[in-house]
Structures are given as structure tokens and as C-alpha cells.
Amino acid sequence: MKRVTPHPASNNTQRRAFLRSGGLLLTVLTTGTALASRQARANDGLLSQASVHYQKMPHDGQQCSNCAYFIPGKTATDTGSCRLVSGTIYPDGWCVRFSS
Ligand code: SF4
Fold this sequence. Notes:
Blueprint: H1 8-40, E1 70-71, E2 81-82
The structure holds iron/sulfur cluster (SF4).
Iron/sulfur cluster binds at residues 52, 54, 64, 67, 69-70, 82, 84-85, 89, 93-95, 97-98.
């Protein structure tokens, strides 16, 4: 059986080009993931309302006042806060992290 040996110079050039493109791809992926993570967290370290699709109205019978993460305000109708989500939270609000 005849063995085919690639030209060493062209093989090195192809290898370098491949490694360069792989490095660039890795850099793009790492940067994108870091940005997405930063956008999901508000300044207080909690999840941003946008990242959990928070809304000020109930969803399919679920609402913040019935959620395990809700911290009520002074009265049942006052706004409160949330152990997971940043900002003012309405008792009638809802987000995708709802937990009964
Ligand atoms: S996790 Fe979502 S549904 Fe539950 S209290 Fe927080 S904002 Fe409301």
C-alpha cells in the first residue's frame, strides 16, 4: 500500500488557519455568554425582569402573591419584592420562574 505524505508546509498552514478560526470562534462564544449572563442579572445580583419575562398581570391563574419567592408589601395590594427577580413586584404580576 502506497502511503501519501502531505507537503509539510501546506499542512502547517492549514493547521494554523484552523486553530486561528477555532480560537476566534471560542472568543466569540465566550464573550456572547458573558454578555448574556450580565444582562440577565440586575445591579443587585437578582434576575432582571426582562430576563424572566415579568409582567404586571397574572398568567394562567398564577401570580406573584401565590409564588414561593414573593415578599409581600405592607398590605395585600401593595407592591412587594421577590427573592429571585429585581425591582418592584406587583402581587398580580407573574414571571416564568413562578413556583407554587
Ligand atoms: S419568581 Fe416571578 S412569579 Fe414568583 S414572585 Fe418573583 S416575579 Fe413573581
